[in-house]
Description:
The complex is a heterodimer of chains A (about 475) and B (about 500). Chain A has helices at about 15-25, 55-60, 65-75, 105-115, 130-135, 160-175, 290-300, 340-355, 365-390, 395-405, 410-420, 435-445, 455, 460-480, and strands spanning about 5-10, 30-35, 75-80, 80-85, 90-95, 155, 175-180, 185-190, 195-200, 205, 210-215, 230, 240-245, 255-260, 265-270, 275-280, 305-310, 315, 320, 325, 330. With about 475 residues, chain A is of the alpha+beta class. Chain A folds into 3 domains: about 5-75 and about 160-230 and about 310-380, FAD/NAD(P)-binding domain (3-Layer(bba) Sandwich), CATH 3.50.50.60; about 95-150 and about 385-480, no CATH class; about 240-310, no CATH class. In chain A, the strands form 5 sheets. A 7-stranded mixed sheet of chain A has the order 5-4-14-15-16-13-17. In chain A, helix 1 packs parallel to helix 8 (about 340-355), helix 2 (about 55-60) crosses helix 8 (about 340-355) and helix 8 (about 340-355) packs antiparallel against helix 9. Chain B is of the alpha+beta class and about 500 residues long. Helices cover about 35% and strands about 20% of the residues of chain B. Chain B has 15 helices and 21 strands. In chain B, helix 1 packs parallel to helix 6 (about 165-175), helix 1 packs parallel to helix 9 and helix 9 (about 345-360) runs antiparallel to helix 10. Chain B is globular and about 75 Å long. The mean pLDDT of chain B is about 95. At the A-B interface, helix 9, helix 11 and helix 13 of A face helix 10 and helix 12 of B.
Amino acid sequence: MSDGRRLVLVVGSGTAAAMAATAIARSLPDIRVVRLDDGEEDALDELLGASRPSVRAFHGALGVDEAEVVERTRASYRLGTRVSGWSDIPYFRGHGMYGESVSGVSFHHLWLRAHSRGTVAPFDSFSISASLASQSRFAAPSSQRESPLAGLDYGLQLNLPAYAQALRSLGRAAGVEEIHGNIAAILQSSDGGCIRALKLADGRELAADLYIDASGHAAGVRRALPWRWIDWNASLPVDRLLFSRPAANQIPPVSDDLVALAAGWRYEARLQDATVHLLAYSSAHETDDQARATFHHAAGTAPRDQPVVLRQGRLEDPWAGNCVAIGSAAVSLEPSAASSLHAVCRHLDRLIACWPGHDSRATPAEIAYFNRRTALGSDRLRDFVQLPYLLNQRPEALWRAAAAGPVSAELARDLALFRERGRLSIHDEDGFERDEWLASLIGLGVIPRRIDPVAAELPMSKIQQRLEAISTGLRQLMETLQ
Amino acid sequence: MNSNRIERIVIVGGGTAGWMAAAALSRFLAHGNTRIRLVESEEIGTIGVGEATIPPIRTFNALLGIDEADFLRATRGTYKLGIEFVDWGQPGQRYFHPFGRYGRDIAGIDFHQLYLRERQRRPLPQIESFCVSAVAARAGRFGRPQSDPVHPEHDFNYAYHFDASLYAAYLRKYAEHLGVQRIEGKVEEVVLDPQSGFVQALQLTGERRVEGELFIDCSGFRGLLIEQALASGYENWQHWLPCDRAVAVPSASAGLPEPYTRSTARLAGWQWRIPLQHRIGNGLVYASPFMQAAEAERTLMDNLPAQALAPPRHLNFVTGRRKLAWNRNVVALGLSAGFIEPLESTSIHLIQLGIAKLLALFPDRRFEPLERDEYNRAMQTAFEAVRDFVILHYKLSARSDSAFWSYCGNMSVPESLERKLALFRGRGRNLRCEGELFGLTSWVAVMLGQGVWPEDYDPSADALDEGKVGALIDHVQGSINQTVLTFPGHLDFLQRSGGAATK
Lengths: 482, 503
């Protein structure tokens, strides 16, 4: 099947594979993109339509009109997640800015200073996303600097089956070819370092220059070559998921909900025509039957199918030889921080930036770069997801064990520095915004012992004035939106 | 009120580093509860190697509330749009490292990739022709950067050249006005607390004693506190950056001052030329195993743009970094924290960065290891990133006309740089990492300038229509030339904007 062009074979039936094939066909001309659809969707992946601002960058790079995506696939805008049950007070983990800095001092230091003096409104009441979400409203970010909307950012709550379908037709228009069939065998090169061809059940052989495994958690193609799995279950104890996706007809809110329970957590996202319910739990602390009952009680509906077993962790090297694993084939995380589509977007962006040149061979430098940066990004995602486990204030056995779980050196250092000084370090490939870290840390009840020395010396009246001005600005904006 | 608050800060040394620290600390700890004193001796000369700067200096000045024209008048300063490198590739070759950007990106694809692709179709001028700061510099012109979303290629950045001792004097006035007390005297002894090993006080000549809780060591290479008293250790980088001597001399001006620094490669090092309003700073940085002091001095004096205004001064240095720039209650800034030769004008920037990190992590009297470790980690990252970028120039030189250049061409480089080189050689990629000071333009300038032509360009550039890209490249070049024509001459601009000193 060669016409002189280089051939990329994307393996997968779900959203990640549709995104990969379309992005590659659109960004890289003179490449033949074939997607092998083996009909085996990753059920969990296809449930998780919550996306972060990275999906908008993905659409931007593809030249896809966002309004059209929302309209055609019945998606909705997503400003963040309401988080409750981990600490005394629920909090909002939103995109975009929390407050505004003053003379180079980050806003949270001003807030902490006011907090140390007694009464101050909750940290998230200074966030534009949280304010909008509390009234289930959405407004587009403003380019006018004075407007509170200038600090707004958002993702989309995607309606996955429809979204994947829309991307597939975009892909076809850009020349993506689709083949349906099941893989019977994966043939390796003589040295075992590359894939020579995929042999299908009907006898066909597909040979490509580059294989992209976007098949979901199973990562069957990438795992035909040498691989090593780095397991995270010691720090992230949740290992089972129950879910359902009943149809609905509703006006979707602009946020989703995450609630801690005795042996795990539950998640709810409402779309225009369906509601997604998830229950994640630790099998060491709750039986499947108990979980089923918990699910039914909370969601008001029975879970679909058997529980999904979740092995959290990542591939040490997602790219080996001529095969790259992306999305949940490369990193598997519990879906509490909308990281699933985010990982797909980041991996594709990086893959296209490292794309093998015209001779179709990736250099070791590029492969090493992709693997190193992907590992960094995955580890930061894990650290962010682990944060509520480490800082939770719940009494149950699961939660006490999780609070004492193993922590990466970076997260330990970051936490120590924040507890002591209220400072956040900047890391490469941090997929979360700085203010999202702050909202989580403060929301989980971490109050630094000291604050920025410059903030500590600002006159209290100036700080109060600033806090007041931000609150007033937000209030006025909300009134105009009524 | 924090009862552990630091109330007495003592700065040792009054060079550029010392007075920058004094000015910034007095500005940002201006609550009347911290006493800042600076000990310096007129007997000890200061080393003014950092006369050329990079754009972040503007942020430092702005944070202090310094007026640009006033500052330029006081320091006899000029504008700087970048650095011209002469003879670094093959002898006779020149290239420009501009402060700014190349052209404009299309659909997220970097301009240099478009340039590399177009170059396979037809001859193109050097990539600097697509950067406003480089074109203006070559024309001897200067203007304010324009931020125009329709013409992103019109934006650029700039820094200054100035007389470092006048800058120190300027900041001294600023700091003294905010209450910093200057103590004239020589340190005879550093008194350590016998239990904790922390610095307790400085014993000065004439039976005087200066006590403090936090000490800032700006004493220069010798590291009076950080090394001589606390033995913090030094990481030597001479195997990568073998230059260890410099000889410097001011000369008269030769024509109008250029708005850029020039670096000319010589047989065992390189020569700088830094135009100020009233004179030119010149110097030769060289490696003593490959060149004698007398020969270095002769090379410098034979290559002056105009008559020398003073006898040449000789300096020694060891390129590297203090292992613990913050140790116990001492923070080292400037040469006592490490030294990277001034090839990319980073000395003052590293001081500025140290001050900013110190302010952000400002300790109290308990001196938590947390803050110290974070500071040391951040400074190590910053020093290493600058180091790699400076090594790049030596490693890439195509010269083989001396033992020195043969050594540089054959030496191994840090792994971090090895990775960058491999990525660029492959498809012209530059993928930025945490803490890196120099961005895409800088790496592309040096790589292409010194003859690293990638084997291939980024294949995603093929997604764009050839005709359109070609037309855009021509359009960008034309519009940059047009913009530069609206700029006045450099000296003209200085005079009009009030930055020129009256004699």
